[in-house]
Write a structure and sequence with these properties.
The chain has about 280 residues and is an alpha/beta fold. It has one domain: Rossmann fold. The protein contains nine helices and seven strands. The protein has a seven-stranded parallel beta sheet with strand order 3-2-1-4-5-6-7, with helices on both faces. It binds nicotinamide-adenine-dinucleotide.
């Protein structure tokens, strides 16, 4: 593949993906590598991250694994330092790592909130805080993809209150970034990924919960909703991580901000915005 100076994907380019040991992140890492980019496979699970990096290398790609807790600002700084040491630049950052709890809001503990916010919100903040100055100083085109969720557009979603709140915030931060890069006339593109059901291990995200934040005690009804959502991942409305990754690479190349993967929730989003619009006063 040939790479023009404007391409952020391809030979001589570098993509950093968090949460890249599994699911959507793994598929993103593999797709960037297949397109010729060198990839940094960053994940809390360093062993699985190395498995992914090794399989990319075995397929002829360039990849480096790194154990990183995105909730830890210093660890994200180390991720950037290692990326620059190893590859000398960063062209694409995917802030993708994410976790969820499952319970009605009244049953979510403070530690449930803390864990989900630490990873999904602070993880993205750390990624932006560390990598945006690097991209800015590089002065070449770059792109940031933040993984939100369709929950970031629907906003209120029963049983995943903390998760939905972080994903609304990720959508908001992405929109702010896009506006501010335009104000500063920086050649950095932004996309926000808003998937619905994708066949990954997100329903087992408690595997990475720090023991200091305790364990989750799901009610029976929360557990049955969790199982139903998990089943939807492999049902007719489910997508594979690879299909989602293809859409992300297409969106980066096209400079598209919104990456909405499923048509199914359109009517729910429409109903929400119709209700909001209906409540705007005509004058004050
Ligand atoms: N699967 C879906 O249906 C779906 C839908 C909407 C949004 N998402 C979002 O997609 C993203 C990827 O999730 P997935 O579905 O591929 O799940 P997954 O569980 O398969 O992968 C998530 C990865 O993130 C890693 N991770 C967890 N905590 C971390 C931390 N503190 N630091 C670094 N890495 C950490 C995990 O080890 C795992 O490898 C998440 O942000 C999730 O919220 C998924």
């Amino acid at each position: 593949m040939t790479t023009s100076t404007d391409d952020v994907i391809g030979s001589g380019r570098v993509a950093v993906v968090t949460g890249a040991a599994s699911g959507i992140g793994r598929a993103l890492a593999e797709a960037f590598a297949a397109a010729g980019s060198a990839v940094v496979v960053a994940d809390l699970d360093g062993i699985e991250a190395e498995v992914v990096a090794a399989s990319i290398r075995a397929a002829g790609g360039e990849a480096e694994a790194m154990q990183v807790d995105v909730a830890d600002a210093a660890a994200v700084d180390r991720l950037a330092a290692t990326t620059l040491e190893r590859f000398g630049r960063v062209d694409v950052l995917c802030n993708n790592a994410g976790v969820s709890t499952f319970n009605l809001l009244r049953d979510q503990t403070l530690d449930d909130w803390r864990w989900v916010f630490d990873v999904n919100l602070w993880g993205v903040i750390h990624g932006l805080h560390t990598f945006v100055p690097i991209m800015r100083d590089q002065g070449t085109p770059a792109h940031i993809v933040n993984t939100a969720s369709i929950a970031g557009l629907l906003s209120g979603v029963a049983f995943i209150g903390p998760y939905a709140a972080t994903k609304v915030a990720v959508v908001s931060m992405s929109e702010t970034l896009a506006q501010e890069f335009a104000i500063d006339q920086l050649p950095i593109g932004v996309s926000v990924l808003c998937p619905s059901s994708v066949d990954t291990r997100v329903m087992e995200s408690e595997r990475g919960r720090p023991s200091a934040l305790g364990v989750e005690h799901r009610t029976d009804i929360a557990e049955s909703v969790r199982m139903a959502i998990r089943d939807s991942f492999t049902g007719p409305s489910g997508l594979t991580p690879a299909a989602v990754a293809d859409r992300v690479l297409d969106a980066i190349r096209a400079g598209r901000f919104w990456i909405i993967t499923h048509p199914g929730e359109r009517s729910v989003a429409e109903a929400r915005f119709t209700d909001i619009l209906a409540n705007f006063p005509l004058n004050h």
